[in-house]
Amino acid sequence: MSKRVMNPATRTAAVALAAAGLGASMVAGAGSAFAAEGQAVTPIAATASAAVAAQAETQAKVAAQVKAAATKAAATKAAAAKTAAAKAAAVKAAAAKKVVTAKKAASWVKPVTSYTLTASYNQGGAMWAHKHSGQDFAVPVGTPVKAAGAGTVVKAGPNGGGDGPAYGNAIVVKHANGTYSQYAHLSKIKVHIGQKVGAGQQIALSGNTGNSSGPHLHFEIRTTPNYGSAVNPAAFLRSHGVGI
């Protein structure tokens, strides 16, 4: 049996070609693996980046909405507080005005209610030695008589409280503004000298005592406690917000 021997040059070329073929396969395989790996990784990275961006955008929108809602709530609260403060101020002002009005109205009042005006101030006639010094209110005997203004009783009793028998039972009250009010022809006196009285407080009952032609209250406003210093009582009351 003969043995074939390959030419060394031919053998070397075959080995080189085989090595070259293996290298090409390896290179191609590596390239394929690299390409496959690149195709698998790139979409995941892109998707993650997009998700982060989308999440950030959503959070920004939510934050903006929360901030807008908070701003609106604060504005609404401020507006409500301002409205409430304005209402409170209006109510307070109205209450203060009411109190002032009430105090002004209560400073002076009519001495009697449900009356008929008869003889007026400075009226002449046979009933008086001089002209009439006050305003007469025709009322039944026993009608409550009230202090026209706050003050202190300086005269109270029969004989006009010291002004003479023509007045019958009478009271004189001194007021803070330096004036005096007088109430005459009373059936009953309910206060005493030195007593403090308030505007509208009952001080007596009307009557028909003294120089009187019928039951009535004789009312005067004076500049002193004594007879002879009277001023027009109707005009005085009107100047203090009280009409008769």
TrEMBL record:
Q: Does this UniProt record's set of keywords contain Signal?
A: yes
Domain of life here?
Bacteria
Where does the signal sequence lie?
Answer: 1-35
Keyword Hydrolase tagged: yes
- What Enzyme Commission number(s) apply to this enzyme? 3.4.24.-
Molecular functions (GO terms): hydrolase activity
Annotated M23ase beta-sheet core domain residues:
131-233
Q: Which CDD domains match?
A: M23_peptidase (cd12797)
- Broadest EC class assigned to this enzyme: hydrolase
Could you list this entry's UniProt keywords, alphabetically sorted.
Hydrolase, Signal
- Protein name, UniProt field: M23 family metallopeptidase
Q: What species is this protein from?
A: Streptomyces wedmorensis
